[in-house]
Amino acid sequence: MNTLQEEALEEMKTAIHTWFDEQENRTDVESAVKRTTLQIGIFNEVTLDYRPGRSNVDSLNFGWDAADKKPTQASPFTREQVVHEVQPLLAEFVKKKLDKLVTSPLIDYRFTMQGSFASTDGTVELVVLETVNAEKKRQLLERIHSYIEQKLEQSSYPTKPLETFFLTRHLLDPQLFRELEVGKVIAIFDRIQELNKERTKALSEHRSNMIQALTDWAEDVFLPRYIEITRSEYRTNVYVIKPGAALENKDEQNQPIDLLLYGAVMILRYEPNYSKSRGQTYLELATQLGSSKAGRMLKEGSDSFSPEDVHMRHELAECKANDVFSLITVVIRKEEARAYELAISFILSLLRKGFPKSYKIKLKSSVREVLPVKGLAKSDTHRFFANALAYSELHPLLEEYARAAMQEYEWYVDAESEKSVMPGSYAIFGLGLSDERYFPLVEDYMALVDDEHQLAHDKFTAVFAETHGITERSAPALVACLRRSHDSLKLKIQPELESDDKLFILVQQIEALTDYEAERVLYPIWGKADKLAAWARKAQEPRKELLLRLLKATGKGL
Question: What is the phi/psi pair of residue 147, to 5°?
């Protein structure tokens, strides 16, 4: 090597040395691996990123294209030199570092250093070193088998999400389990969900960990056998089937393709709406690879539900559901309350059995009702619930549906983004406008609304205020709505608040809020606090005192 190349190699070694030194000086290593027996080390993969003058080692590598990582200086190495000269020298250097950490919890049972090198021929991606600690691997396998036997097979107690985080990744790790036992893995995943079904929040964490492990396995292990994957930081992955790629033993049970389909269904059922497209993509890829089961699932839905769950036929109405496309088709054959009761009950039953809450309705009906709220999406889902709300005897059932449907970060999927609403919205808007007995439902709904991504509830709030005004019963619900409002909302209720009695009702509600919440609630009525202060200065007692109390609630003064 010439002088420039030797300096460059030394720069890489310094980056590696610095990373190892930083990790060895950590004080949290022992405590980290003691959280669960299923973690035997912290790091299993790092990446050396060589760019002349700014080389570094990082434990995070998202697999994105390195095309935009242009070095500020020219590299002294050709591609051939990186592969045949630089890599062997660095591998030896890293191995010596690892030899000193054989028993350290810092390093996992396997360790890989990836390399991304600038060269005169462009970026070179390769593995610098890959090693397996046989003793740590043996210990970890013992711990995994012991955990499955004691905590899953022989126990009836809930488990910890952290344990699931590691277990799911271990079970899908081809370095630990060369032969993937698909049936056993699926059974273990199902068992974890069964043990934790009574703990809603924890169950969501368990499922999230399972889905991430399945996604990593699909993207890094299974799909690359058949598909070229182009990853990007800024867009979804691009998948291209390799020429001649075809599944082996595709008609036999418990094949790897079945695990991909299992993961796809979990994504469709439990992931937020913005992530569900990945599940559908996996089903489409599986179909292209020759899986008849995947094709059937795309056409009829997953096999997560019985035929009776997804198809209801009656002389008054017929309903069909496909969880893969999050679609419920409703045909109303006779326009009467019983027909809508059958349809609502069908949907409610599906939601309770795990049907995606972010769904849409395809409606065939001769009636075209809409809610008296301008700006809502003119969708079949909206029309279905508006039609049903016309029958007052169905209102209790619609409340039951709404409480089961509403969930933060879920959306009806047949509305454009600016008109998107949380599931249950149309039923709740109609019920809240129709009868004060549903005011508590409105409050509960507003507590869940994602006001960063939903605007439509402002339209409802304006109509709610106009319909019910300010009373002892309506004020809590109106304030709940205004706590989720946006600056664009303007309410025309100042004439009503000329009544000191009405103003007093509002004051009682506002004084229970934080300064920020109070200011947010009052803005659609009076605007900024200085405008409210101006009103207070002009007012006479006892109105002046009430306005000053509102101003004080916002943390402001005259």
Answer: -65, -45
Q: How many CB atoms lie within 10 A of CB 258?
A: 20
The one-letter amino acid at 491: L
Segment 522-538 shows an average pLDDT of: 88
Cis before 542? omega within 30: yes
What's the per-residue H, E or C state across 367-401? CCCCCCCCCCCCCHHHHHHHHHHCCHHHHHHHHHH
Angle between helices 500-510 and 543-553 (to 10 degrees): 20
**Cα separation, 163 vs 155, whole angstroms:** 15
Q: Which of 298, 276, 278 is nearest to 287 (CA)?
A: 298
> Nearest to residue 480, comparing CAs of 460, 499, 498?
460
Q: Is the model's pTM score more than 0.85?
A: no
DSSP one-letter code for 417 = G
Among 101-110, 157-166, 474-483, where is mean pLDDT lowest? 101-110
With contact defined as beta carbons under 8 Å apart, do 108 and 101 qualify?
no
pLDDT at res. 457: 96
Question: Residue 328 in 3-state DSSP?
Answer: strand
Mean per-residue pLDDT of the chain? 92
Name beta bridge partners: 112.
Answer: 45, 130
Per this entry, what is the length of the chain?
558
- Give the number of C-alpha atoms closer than 13 A to the C-alpha of residue 53, restricted to the C-beta side: 6
Instruction: Give the β-pairing of 43-50 and 311-313.
Output: unpaired
Nearest to 357 by CA among 411, 397, 310, 400: 411
Contact 459, 372 (CB under 8 A): no
Structure tokens at 131: 């090693």
CA distance linking residue 382 with residue 371, whole number of Å: 8
Would you give the DSSP letter of residue 242? Answer: P
pLDDT tens string 202-237? 999 999 999 999 999 999 999 999 999 998 877 889
The b-or-e profile of 325-349 (16+ CB within 10 A means b, else e) is bbbbbbbbeeeeeebbbbbbebbbb
Would you state the pLDDT for residue 535? 86
CA angle, residues 59, 62, 65, in degrees to nearest 5: 125
Give the contacts of 543 (CB within 8 A, at least 6 positions apart): 500, 503
Contact in structure between 32 and 97 (CB atoms under 8 Å): no
- The CB-side HSE value for 188 (13 A sphere, CA atoms) comes to 22
Please, are residues 457 and 449 in contact by the beta-carbon 8 Å criterion?
yes
Q: List, for residues 71-96, the tens digit of each pLDDT value.
A: 567 899 999 999 999 999 999 999 99
Task: Please write the tens of the pLDDT for every residue from 335-390.
Answer: 999 999 999 999 999 999 989 898 999 999 999 999 999 999 999 999 999 999 99
Edge-first strand order for the sheet with 56-58 is 56-58, 43-50, 107-117, 124-132
Q: Strands of 197-355 (E only): list them.
A: 227-230, 238-241, 311-313, 317-322, 327-332
Rounded CA-CA distance 540/558 in Å is 15
Evaluate whether 98 touches 111 at the Cβ level (below 8 Å): yes
